[in-house]
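Feature request disguised as a bug: please show the residue count (371) next to ribonuclease H in the output. Example input:
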Amino acid sequence: MDRTEENRQEYKELQRSYSYRVKREVSKAKQKAYDELYTRLDTREGEKDLYRLARQRDRDGKDVQQVRVIKDRDGRVLTSEESVQRRWKEYFEELMNEENEREKRVEGVNSVEQKVDKIRKDEVRKALKRMKSGKAVGPDDIPVEIWKCLGEAAVEFLTSLFNRVLESERMPEEWRSSVLVPIFKNKGDVQSCSNYRGIKLMSHIMKLWERVVEARLRKVVEVCEQQYGFMARKSTTDAIFALRILMKYRDGQRELHCVFVDLEKAYGRVPREELWYCMRKSGVAEKYVRVVQDMYERSRTMVRCAVGQTEEFNVEVGLHQGSALSPFLFAIVMDQLSEEVRQESPWTMMFTDDIVICSESREQVEENLER
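Example output, currently without the count:
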């Protein structure tokens, strides 16, 4: 066994040991926190905590299905159904089409023209198996359980349908629509739209199509090892473990500078042309690029609130929320955009849109932040 392989095996053993210890310590910390909470609730000081918990529980029940009035952008309360619907549409339409300012435009990149194999039945079976049951349905009201119950008949039908979509690079118009449900964040004014996050409900058959495409892209695109989000057999524990190793490096009286960066709302603001550019730069076949472009063409949604559903509006910025494919597309984007930084600071780590840039030099960290 060479030294490199020996180091790799040693790293894996350390990782397994550390992962077990982390889980054990987290479990012990949770139990200790519960014990301290129960002890405190039996005291006079605990009465305030009990009141706070009761108030939080009451707030948890204030979801959008119960809140029938909402405030406009100037803080005035709207009561009519039409004005409430109009406000929800206005808020989410602005939010979902807002793009961050950029200094440089996307440059051209050579496309990869290569033959793409037809979709096989086993690919559809795997996609169906990965779909969880009991999930909220999209605009077509067809749950994935129907396809699962139909067994091989569904597999044959879906394989034929997906191959037609792949060949034509055009999916059915119905798949382009989605429903957005506002969910209260459990903090702030319950009548303020900004205190809600939108959960997008898409057609389950569209999600199946996405899963088939995603599985193929994962075989083609090699995302860097520093990305720990949306990657198979990787988790936050692995990222923490790697960071702890770096901290030990600092314990040896050596300089180590780390900057933690959170790219606010990056997922929903990825410019579409950046996505196509990053896919091509990652070596994705042009056929798949066009298939994904079709998924985003004329995409639209409507808001479902307590007083009904709003009119549809177009979504022209960012990745699809609630999509089975979007997490991996985002990993591709982050992989390409962080390439220069990773070359200068190989200790850089990412978990989705959270980045930690590490270097022995403060100047180097600051330089990488400006890239």
